[in-house]
Specification:
The protein has 430 residues and is an alpha/beta fold. It is built from twelve helices and 16 strands.
């Protein structure tokens, strides 16, 4: 008999946490060591539109008894002791410290799994001093629970050059609507915040790109493609993104006293399947991935793009450095700065600091990659093998298996141990 494992997470959510939940659930199913019951949850207001036919057989409306093991994908503040051995899966936070509620929640369970060593460091080293009214330290709050890193693995059957469908709608759309043959690509949400203070720093990426290539002849300019959306994922919000770009263009024109046209910025909005994203990554016009991100728990799109072997320009900070190999990529220097109050929320504390790239350096780098592309392409080629060997879905499954064997072996053995009942001998009545 297999031990019971309850999996609680947003497996149908369009969010990053939804992707992470599906990945962990599929890894656990593949290991085939537990009787798995999936309890679906929501992720804020994010639509639950993702179909999971491969997981539906495990979906349950509830449990009749406490499971031997529970795996909950959530913010640490939401962690609960559900199974006899309870595991929490989370990205923690993208700043250098985490909120007190995250440490309190983590201490309620037996094991925390995070996607990067950066997340492990933040949760493991965050300390909050508890003080009395007189200002004296009465206690220290920190995470006491073991923390292990389980990266988000890439499905190499989907993300590879051989699987590109040049007849797909998205591939043809790029062909027909983008005349430029050299495009930088960014993938990620563009959340509401003042210019320079949204977590992905999309606004400053747009501004820096425009400034970098304004003096190039229109026929010799690269383009920037934003595969982006806001938190609501609605088509109408595409107009909001386009307005942001126009506002940046107007602001930059004023700052530079420039009346000419800037290089083009294109927006891909809406939900694309994994195979369609692979078509985008490998499109012949897409030459380089660029991100000015201020902080990442992992950044799966960047990992997926790594399978192309094309150049990567990324911030030299946080979770993606686990797989963005410095020898194969171009990392942007910068400094830690306190987050803007408008960016603070439940998992981004006001006292937190995150990374801001050096925009002048980034501008120079964009130009260098464009002007010396063969050099940077050659430098990035080893990334394909590096990612394939170390960060595939199969490698993730192996990593998760090792951790589960280490931490939950007792629960599984107890569940499958044969039950023995010793009855007293009956004596014949005299």
């Amino acid at each position: 008999m297999k031990p019971t494992l309850a999996f609680i997470g947003p497996i149908n959510s369009l969010s990053g946490y939804g992707v992470h939940a599906r990945m962990v659930a599929r890894a656990l199913v593949k290991l085939d060591k537990w009787e798995i019951h999936i309890l679906r949850t929501n992720w804020g207001v994010t639509p639950n539109t993702v179909q999971t036919p491969d997981l539906d057989a495990h979906v349950s409306n509830g449990l009749q008894h406490q499971p031997e093991i529970s795996v909950q994908v959530a913010l640490p503040s939401e962690f609960r002791k559900i199974g006899k051995y309870s595991i929490g899966v989370t990205a923690v936070t993208e700043t250098h410290v985490c909120p007190a509620s995250f440490m309190e929640g983590s201490n309620k369970i037996d094991l925390v799994l995070v996607p990067s060593d950066f997340s492990k460091l933040v949760l493991g080293t965050s300390v909050l001093e508890m003080k009395n009214p007189q200002g004296q330290i009465t206690d220290v709050l920190k995470c006491q629970t073991p923390i292990e890193t389980v990266f988000e693995g890439i499905d190499l059957d989907v993300f590879n050059k051989k699987s590109v469908n040049k007849k797909s709608e998205i591939y043809q759309t790029i062909n027909q609507t983008i005349p430029e043959n050299f495009c930088y690509l960014f993938v990620g949400h563009w959340l509401d915040a003042p210019l320079g203070h949204d977590r992905k720093d999309v606004g400053m990426l747009v501004k820096t790109f425009m400034a970098a290539f304004k003096d190039h002849k229109p026929t010799e300019r690269p383009a920037l493609i934003l595969k982006t959306s806001t938190a609501g994922f609605s088509y109408m919000e595409r107009d909001k993104i386009l307005q942001h770009i126009d506002d940046i263009r107007i602001k930059l024109s004023s700052e530079l006293q420039y009346n000419g046209n800037f290089p083009n910025v294109y927006v891909i909005n809406g939900d694309l399947s994994d195979s369609e994203m692979n078509d985008v990554y490998n499109h012949h016009k897409v030459k380089c991935f660029v991100t000015f991100t201020k902080g990442e728990g992992y950044c799966l799109p960047l990992a997926e793009f790594s399978t192309t072997g094309k150049p990567i320009i990324a911030s030299n900070h946080s979770g993606h450095l686990d797989f963005v190999h410095a020898s194969y990529s171009t990392l942007l220097p910068g400094k830690l700065e306190q987050i803007h109050p408008r960016s603070a929320n439940e998992w981004l504390p006001r006292e937190g600091h995150w990374f801001t790239v050096s925009y002048p350096y980034a501008m120079q780098t964009l130009r260098k990659v464009y002007e010396n592309y063969p050099k940077y392409l050659s430098k990035s080629q080893p990334t394909v093998n590096w990612i394939g060997q170390n960060f595939s879905f199969d490698a993730m499954v192996k990593r998760l298996d090792d951790i589960m064997e280490t931490y939950t072996k007792t629960q599984r053995q107890n569940a499958i141990a044969p039950m023995t009942i010793t009855l007293p001998k009956l004596t014949k009545p005299q």
